[in-house]
Amino acid sequence: MSRLLWIAWREYVENVKTKAFLLAVFMTPVLMGLSFLIPKMLEGQRPEARRIAIADVHGDLGPALVERLARKRVPGAPNEALYVVETADLGAGDAAAREQRLVSARDALDARVKDGTLFAWVAIRPSVLERKRGAKASEYRTGNLIDMKVLEDVQAELSDLVKQRVVAQAKVPPEAAEILTTRVPLEPLNVLATGKAGSITATVMPFVFTLLLFLTIVSVSQALITSTLEEKANRVIEVLLSSVSPFQLMAGKIFGTCAVGLTLMTIWAVGGLAGLAIQGLQVVDMGQLALCLAYYLLGFLLIASLMVAAGSACNTLKEAQNLLSPMMFLLTLPMFFWIAVGRDPSGTLARSLSFIPVFTPFLMMMRVASTPPPPPMEIAASLAVLAVSAWLAMRLAARVFRVGVLMYGKPPSVRELFRWMRAKG
Questions:
Q1: Closest-CA residue to 334 (of 303, 306, 311)
Q2: Can you give the pLDDT at residue 389?
Q3: Domain containing 308: what range?
Q4: 144-148, 240-244, 387-391: least confident range
């Protein structure tokens, strides 16, 4: 046991004193903060005035929409127009005649969008008021759907204009019209926190926990492959095996690297929770932190065992990357279910996926931080499944490590790897 701990300590120190570790400590939270801060800062950036053309097939709403959009101003600059709005002339006649002229003008308007002289053009059809089944919808045509702000402004102004027109035609009293044309005041709040800021924090906390867990486990466990390949190439591993058993060497490397990841998690968690506490936001309890630690340790043992087995069976990083590709695919699969699990953490899908070992540490941590949390028996069962899976993974990885770490030359095939796993001794 003392030799195993010595190897773990050596692996921990060798990783912690590197520049890469220091960069991970400081750069990861900085990058995560910038990912929220920069978009917020850019929201106030003064945009270039967008040129929009309004083609009014309906025949009676276009001028009012043009006026409304032309009145909008750049935030913080009341003298600068946000939009330059023009009218696409469809002539007189009924809606059918104007629709026919729009068909002829469509290509020219699209061409202006493509050459940049027009940002977007809008076709207003009678369906905005009539809403008949099968009626042709109005259109918003642009070459840039990433800038959704323009579409939102056009849609909001057109909707408000239509509501006012309907209210006026129906002669609805002003008080009733105000109720009908405005949204119900409804403030979303999370019962785990006080105030709007606390509610937002409590809502995103499960995703932050899960993301940190994923980043730490995946990034740090990959260091096992690099160190194993380096020691194998330098023949240092042969010297180490003269003093310790293959299992002790493998387990020591895993535990040492696990401690590196745990150090990162502790630094990030303490910094983040301290920042929230300064703001008066306390949305995480000690029970959640304890479970986060348990899921991290067991998840790391499971994933790191697979990583170190892959590293020991290969001679170069390129060979290891070929084995890592399917493993990384499995590890990134839980990310595709984060939103679904976050919406319904107690649903059948969330509960079923939580008992798949590679999903368990990520999805269960999200569910634990949700409201209501999973039943204690379900948490205990998921930890038991993860513990058994980690133990089996370490046993199988030890068999691969015992053979592969001393083999050089051509990398083993998948069939050979399975044969090594079945071998006893």
A1: 303
A2: 93
A3: 2-38+193-422
A4: 240-244
Q: How confident is the model over 92-107, as pLDDT tens digits?
A: 888 888 888 888 888 8
Lowest mean pLDDT among 198-212, 281-295, 341-355: 198-212
The pTM (predicted TM-score) of the whole model is 0.65
User: Quick check: helix, strand or coil at residue 53?
Assistant: strand
Residues 212 and 122 in one domain: no
Whether 329 and 306 have beta carbons less than 8 Å apart is answered as: no
DSSP-H helix ranges across 234-285? 236-241, 246-278
Beta carbons within 8 Å of 213's beta carbon, 6+ residues apart: 265, 292, 295, 296, 299, 361, 362, 365
Residues 267, 416 within the same domain: yes
CB 223 within 8 A of CB 300: no
Give the whole-angstrom CA distance, residue 416 versus residue 246: 19
82: DSSP letter: S
3-state helix, strand, coil in the chain (%, to 5): 70, 5, 25
pLDDT per residue as tens digits for the range 319-352: 777 777 777 788 788 888 878 887 888 888 889 9
The separation between CA 405 and the C-alpha centre of its own chain, rounded to angstroms, equals 37
187 domain-assigned: no
CB 411 within 8 A of CB 319: yes
Tell me how far apart the alpha carbons of residues 7 and 395 are, in angstroms, rounded to a whole number: 18
CA distance 319 to 315: 7
Q: How far apart are CA 269 and CA 202, in angstroms?
A: 15
Residue 198's pLDDT is what? 44
Which token pair is 306? 């697979």
pLDDT in the model for residue 140: 92
State the Cα–Cα distance between residues 258 and 27, nearest whole angstrom.
Answer: 20
First to last CA, the chain: 20
Number of domains the chain contains: 2
Residues 14 and 114 in one domain: no
Average pLDDT over residues 43-58: 78
Burial class (CB in 10 A: 0-12, 13-18, 19+), 280: exposed
